[in-house]
Design a protein that fits this description.
Blueprint (H helix, E strand, L loop, with lengths): L4 E4 L3 H14 L6 H8 L5 E8 L2 E12 L2 E9 L8 H15 L4 E7 L3 H9 L3 E10 L4 E9 L4
Parallel strand pairs: 4-5
Antiparallel strand pairs: 1-2, 2-3, 3-4, 5-7, 6-7
Bound molecules: coenzyme A (COA).
Coenzyme A binds next to strand 4, helix 3, strand 5 and helix 4.
């Protein structure tokens, strides 16, 4: 199994790595300006990177913490490194970190067609709580709302 470290985004080079993965992963990537804004609110906005021996930013996860809940805004792994359980390990580390921060619930939206991500989240204990019709653009698509509760996991 690959050695990995998951830690909070720590440098401009880390942000460049996150933006590379964004561009390679999403039709509508989140912008540098959005991340710059997030980094100014470190008590609410948390960005974690997953590092491997060969890749300082192999994946990332961005979430907000509000009271006892986190909302996962984004999670992605470099395309060439997918399918090696790195996404699962990143998600587990994020849930552990959220628990450490005092959160007991997690929520997120995911495209209805994104079977890889839905499976990843379901394996981690998330379940479907609702649908937001036409939530996404480029292309327009429903979002599934997934929730995780550490009490029931
Ligand atoms: C979703 C994503 C993070 C998964 O990362 P990954 O490292 O490839 O996932 P893992 O190897 O940890 O796989 C975990 C589980 O997800 C499921 N999965 C992963 N890739 C899959 C695929 N292409 N098709 C179907 N299921 C898949 C499998 O059930 C897998 O478990 P298994 O290996 O026991 O079968 C990755 O595909 C990605 O970055 N996608 C683009 C960004 C994205 O869509 N993010 C989600 C936004 S909400």
């Amino acid at each position: 199994m690959i050695d990995v470290v998951v830690e909070r985004l720590a440098s401009p080079a880390d942000l460049d790595g996150v933006l590379d993965i964004e561009a390679a992963s999403f039709n509508n990537p989140t912008t540098r300006e959005w991340y710059d804004g997030e980094l100014k609110r470190p008590e609410v906005c948390f960005i974690y990177v997953l590092r491997t021996p060969g890749q300082p930013v192999a994946g990332f996860c961005a979430f907000w913490r509000v009271a006892e809940q986190i909302h996962i805004n984004n999670l992605a792994i470099r395309p060439e490194l997918r399918g090696q359980r790195l996404g699962s390990r990143l998600l587990q580390a994020v849930i552990a970190e959220a628990t450490r921060l005092g959160a007991s619930h997690a929520t997120l939206e995911v495209r209805r067609s994104n079977l890889a991500a839905i499976r990843l989240y379901e394996q981690a204990g998330f379940s479907q709580a609702g649908v937001r019709p036409n939530y996404y653009t480029k292309p327009i698509e429903d979002a599934l709302v997934l929730v995780f509760s550490s009490c029931s996991a």
